[in-house]
Amino acid sequence: MTPILFVYAKGGPPLEYAIPRIAAHADVHVLALAPLPRTTESVWLPACASVTSVRPREGVELVDLICSHARRVGAAAVLTLSEYAVVAVAHASLRLGLRGAGERVAGARDKRLMRRIWRDAGVPVPGFKEVHTPEDIAAAFEELTPPLLLKAAWSAGSTAHLTVWNEQQAEEAWKTGRSVMEASSAQGYAELHAADEGVSDFLLEEIVTGEASDWFDEAGWGDYASVEGIVADGRYHPLCITGRMPTIAPFTERASLAPAALPHALQRRIEEVSRAAVDALGLDTCATHTEIKLGADGAMWLIETAARFGGVMTTRQVETVFGLDMIGMLVRELLGRDVDYPRRMLTEGEGAAGSLVVLAVDPEGRPWSELPTWDFEAVDWPALLAPGSRVELVREHSLPPGSRVPVYEEAGGANSMAALCFLTAESGPDLLADCGRILAALPHALGAPSADLPTPGSTA
User: Fold this and answer.
1) Which of 78, 96, 117, 336 has its CA 20 to 30 A from that of 212?
2) Within 13 A of 304's CA, how many CA atoms are on the CB side?
3) Tens digits of per-residue pLDDT, 31-90?
């Protein structure tokens, strides 16, 4: 088969899911920029034609490395599923004359540039101000309405996001945010093409108010949704919508669910807003993951668009519910082969699937009073699930058994995750209820003392 270079970095779907789907269409040559997950090696390694691990590189040096390795294996395309390698892979593909996200890829990575593009295109975004100096913070509080959200411009997973009410808090949060980004960078969770900027670049933006009850008929849903899609030679193909449970402070995700229980007409409105946002970015050929805040009376604001698929298990959720192998579709598109896209975005699927993040907070976002050790096998899962529902541990994104569950830190976002679970259910309501019961039962289900903790079986 045709060779393809897969550039591996932290983030993205687990290799045990991703690599077999790439290998179904091409010979997979892996260039690893981060330590590979050995716990699942028996699944993904046999599907690889070659695996090369290299020391971390940055900027132009990284692009040179990718190009050199792509030429060595004769790659007809270069692919990454990691947020942190998207820009470098796009630049390498341009240099090699291969299909990729294109020369405007930074607009789908740098949140400051992204918002400038959308503002100029008339796409609805919250008010924002770039932060380079303390004077920028003062100007932000003169121009914007607090509270404001401080964001790292190149972060992912809500890392280095902090809510602030005044200039002094914002200056302290800026220091904290840079420390968090430096720590994340040391762990491999940082932008690889613009390493210095990835740590130091921030913005402040207004916190717009969502209203999930104006969009969803049942309680338990978060006030934003994501549109998963693919851009092919500049043409955007929205594929489906995934929903969320409510975030925990400041805006850390704890569960992604498919399908989103939205009426058909509202899904079509979200589809069109996502189209305006992605079209404005001017991308060439890549995956897209577009997050949209859902407000009262039908208001919407763009949160962000990434030039890659939704993180962790989003691709598997979509395949389970909608029957779309998005990774395989993107590989075929990058190789110039025919891809069968839905005529319009799919609004209905079969069954339900979700990704549930284990964080040391209760359903209301309060910290656990005790921090137990993580042990998936210690939990009586059937007692927490509806008949017909199933749960499995995503080993690549989970701590080893016996590890202490980390304290949840708002600035750390998803970096505080103890584990990730993948759930399937016979219906969306069953899945939502399953997640609620699990969140209410932990950490008592892990063996922590019961005082001040929710009991298993209670609802969120």
Assistant:
1) 117
2) 23
3) 999 999 999 999 999 999 999 999 878 889 999 999 999 999 999 999 999 999 999 999
